[in-house]
Amino acid sequence: MTKQVTSKVLIALGFAASTLAIATSAHATDPTEPLVVNGEIEIVTHTAAPAHLEGLKTIQSGWEFRTPETQDLQRDDFDNPGMIGVDNAREAWNTVEGTAEKSCASCHEAPESLAGVRAVYPKWNDKAEEVRTLEMQINGCRTENMGAEALDYTDNKMTEMVALLSAVSRGMPVNVAIDGPAQAMWEKGKEMYYTRTGQLELSCANCHEDNYDNLIRADHLSQGMINGFPAYRLGDAKLIAVHTRFKGCVRDTRAETYKPGSPEFVALELYVASRGNGLSVEGPSVRN
Amino acid sequence: MKLSFALAAVAACYAGVAFAEDVAPADVQYTDEGAIAASLSGAAGDAANGKKVMSTKSKGNCVACHAISAMADVPFHGEVGPTLDGVATRWDEAHLRGIVANAKKTYEGTIMPAFYKNDGYIRPGDAYTGKAPTEALTPLLTAQEVEDVVAYLMTLKD
């Protein structure tokens, strides 16, 4: 396969990527094989950028930037440490909680009945008149339908439930709506993405649009996509929610961060998700 | 030999009273090209300390973005910026000082952070805590640290 990561330059130069790839790429990850999970779920890890995204021609999952060893952990659910969280969430799915004496299963049967949901979140909720992330929707079900308490936004149980809903959508294309009632939030998220914050004055785009595929110290910069979330981070040995990752990246610009679940991070998530429209849902992914 | 020893002693004396002599970030005079003519601390730089500042994560962390062959003992050099090999052949001391203090005066819109500046930020935090600052911000490097870094950069000749 041609290296998508080097081709941005090569295409600009008008060369066929394959002829020069070897000469120009010091470390670009060249997956030996495309990602197929359990020998059956085909994952699109690069594709043409959606029309709204002017800064990139090709969008790529973070998976393409990881080492072959880390990549391989996602090929089989037995090797993917994130699947332990998914199994925990399957148990929680069937567990009755709250004053209404219901479990998720009482209303939704098997988690597989919600296949496709992950792919379209964050999403406008007509009744609540707000853009909801999956976490917000899960808490919505807990408080409105189950009479249970809301979970903390990045509580492990919450992230595991998001991982379960991602797992049953794997292979489906991310397809987040950016127009209609969600548009104002999307615009806000887009502005955040390109704003240079903190004492280092860096925007998301500085690292993930202008410098992806470059090394920053020991890190091989990806495009900062969220199709693989929740991500099992080997360094932390646990599943990481989207907003936790955002917080870390904002902090690294020596900026004041926003809180997980804040309207700012919801807007940013909507925008970042939409940059990945066309990639497959891949969570729970494995990252270093 | 004797002379340079004497100069070093003078520099050390200066370092002790450096604060009184520092040019405040807001008072720094840049040329149209982005250079700064005189030392920001009033003293000469110490190249050995400059090397330390450049490779220390909580200080300059220059190696995060720049590869430098002369620093092969420091692991993990980045490639977001150009290699700094031979940089003193390309730029004179005044211009290197300007680039370190505020590279945006030389390269409009560059990703390289400004190391001698302390205002004009959007949502600055208290270092890497992610929290709002509780005190006035200080520049990423002190005036003397900028001079030390410049002194080290001046050793990088082709």
TrEMBL record, chain A:
<keyword id="KW-0408">Iron</keyword>
<feature type="binding site">
    <location>
        <position position="245"/>
    </location>
    <ligand>
        <name>substrate</name>
    </ligand>
</feature>
<feature type="domain" description="Cytochrome c">
    <location>
        <begin position="89"/>
        <end position="174"/>
    </location>
</feature>
<dbReference type="GO" id="GO:0046982">
    <property type="term" value="F:protein heterodimerization activity"/>
</dbReference>
<feature type="active site" description="Cysteine persulfide intermediate">
    <location>
        <position position="249"/>
    </location>
</feature>
<keyword id="KW-0479">Metal-binding</keyword>
<dbReference type="GO" id="GO:0009055">
    <property type="term" value="F:electron transfer activity"/>
</dbReference>
<feature type="binding site" description="axial binding residue">
    <location>
        <position position="249"/>
    </location>
    <ligand>
        <name>heme c 2</name>
    </ligand>
</feature>
<dbReference type="GO" id="GO:0070069">
    <property type="term" value="C:cytochrome complex"/>
</dbReference>
<dbReference type="GO" id="GO:0016669">
    <property type="term" value="F:oxidoreductase activity, acting on a sulfur group of donors, cytochrome as acceptor"/>
</dbReference>
<feature type="binding site" description="covalent">
    <location>
        <position position="104"/>
    </location>
    <ligand>
        <name>heme c 1</name>
    </ligand>
</feature>
<dbReference type="GO" id="GO:0020037">
    <property type="term" value="F:heme binding"/>
</dbReference>
<comment type="similarity">
    <text>Belongs to the SoxA family.</text>
</comment>
<keyword id="KW-0813">Transport</keyword>
<feature type="domain" description="Cytochrome c">
    <location>
        <begin position="188"/>
        <end position="281"/>
    </location>
</feature>
<keyword id="KW-0808">Transferase</keyword>
<feature type="signal peptide">
    <location>
        <begin position="1"/>
        <end position="28"/>
    </location>
</feature>
<feature type="binding site" description="axial binding residue">
    <location>
        <position position="208"/>
    </location>
    <ligand>
        <name>heme c 2</name>
    </ligand>
</feature>
<feature type="binding site" description="covalent">
    <location>
        <position position="204"/>
    </location>
    <ligand>
        <name>heme c 2</name>
    </ligand>
</feature>
<feature type="binding site" description="axial binding residue">
    <location>
        <position position="108"/>
    </location>
    <ligand>
        <name>heme c 1</name>
    </ligand>
</feature>
<dbReference type="InterPro" id="IPR025710">
    <property type="entry name" value="SoxA"/>
</dbReference>
<dbReference type="GO" id="GO:0046872">
    <property type="term" value="F:metal ion binding"/>
</dbReference>
From TrEMBL, chain B:
<keyword id="KW-0349">Heme</keyword>
<feature type="signal peptide">
    <location>
        <begin position="1"/>
        <end position="20"/>
    </location>
</feature>
<dbReference type="GO" id="GO:0009055">
    <property type="term" value="F:electron transfer activity"/>
</dbReference>
<keyword id="KW-0732">Signal</keyword>
<dbReference type="InterPro" id="IPR036909">
    <property type="entry name" value="Cyt_c-like_dom_sf"/>
</dbReference>
<feature type="domain" description="Cytochrome c">
    <location>
        <begin position="45"/>
        <end position="157"/>
    </location>
</feature>
<keyword id="KW-0408">Iron</keyword>
<dbReference type="GO" id="GO:0020037">
    <property type="term" value="F:heme binding"/>
</dbReference>
<dbReference type="InterPro" id="IPR009056">
    <property type="entry name" value="Cyt_c-like_dom"/>
</dbReference>
<dbReference type="Pfam" id="PF00034">
    <property type="entry name" value="Cytochrom_C"/>
</dbReference>
<keyword id="KW-0479">Metal-binding</keyword>
<protein>
    <submittedName>
        <fullName>Sulfur oxidation c-type cytochrome SoxX</fullName>
    </submittedName>
</protein>
<dbReference type="InterPro" id="IPR030999">
    <property type="entry name" value="Thiosulf_SoxX"/>
</dbReference>
<dbReference type="GO" id="GO:0046872">
    <property type="term" value="F:metal ion binding"/>
</dbReference>
